[in-house]
Amino acid sequence: FYAFEQHSLLELEPPVHTRLRSLVNRSFLSRQVERLRPMIADLANGLIDRFEDKGEADLLPDFATPIPVIVICELLGVPPDMAQQLLAWSHDMVAMYQARRDRAIEDAAVKATVEFSAFMRGYVSERRKNPGNDLLSELIRAEEQGQKLSEDELVTTAVLLLNAGHEATVHAIGNGIKTLLEQDIRLGIGEGHVEETLRIDAPLHLFTRYALEDLEFAGIRFRKGEVVGLMLGAANRDPERFPEPDRFDPSHEPNPHVSFGAGIHFCIGAPLARLEMQVALPILFQRLPKL
Whole-prediction pTM value? Predict the structure, then answer.
């Protein structure tokens, strides 16, 4: 697991991080992901079609999960019919980041890492023979053109994008639905509402980083190598930054929440996650006004 992780953008610093991120970044720019808008709308409507007549649904597996999984498969160029298997591998791998884990969780993560990597290596080999108009094909072209991308880096980056490309967005959509229901907001859901749902109930409340040098900040001393817990959920409700921080207010302009992180590790998929929420949430409430 950790041999695989050493090539992960999440764990790297410049100059390696800069090189890898620059190869991936252009595929996640707002103008690039915008082309996925019609597909996301069709996907959202199709999922609702499946459960609308039943009168009930568990929205996490039936709506919030399939959208980001299928979209990231489409963006990367991985077959959408692999979505369930990719989900299973991903869940086993990200369980390693839980506050409490045991040997069974670690063994499952190692198994998933080996299987996911093997699948991705095989698929990269297939994509070399039949390249497409997708991110994986672009990364393969970069590797073949000598842009300092090894196959290990390529495989780890592809797996990371599949894992990170859905995990947080699933919960951002789920939390967003819950928040909008609590606020009794069903019509006119726009970008401001999406940003405020991200602020008020971030999909990830804590992220850890390392102090890269000895320093003192706000009266606290950090030693090089110490783990630092970044409380994103608390920062999003900082009364010095947000007046009445516990009140839902979609009129914040700008809305400087930190749900996507900050600095050089700012979430590379933020434009895609925002688009998925901006498209899917209004459709859900338009189609199911009595939710």
Answer: 0.92
How many CB atoms neighbour CB 239 within 10 A?
A: 9
Cα torsion 161, 67, 207, 234 to 10°: value is 150
Which residues sit opposite 227 in a β-bridge? 210
pLDDT (tens digit per residue) in 161-192: 888 878 889 999 999 999 999 999 999 999 99
Q: Which amino acid is it at 217?
A: F
Cα Dmax for the chain: 60
Give the three-state DSSP class for 228. strand
Instruction: Quick: pLDDT tens for 33-70.
Output: 999 999 999 999 999 999 999 999 999 999 999 999 99
Q: CA 58: distance to chain centroid?
A: 21
Kindly report the length of the chain. Answer: 291
Whose CA is closest to 110, among 97, 98, 95, 93? Answer: 93
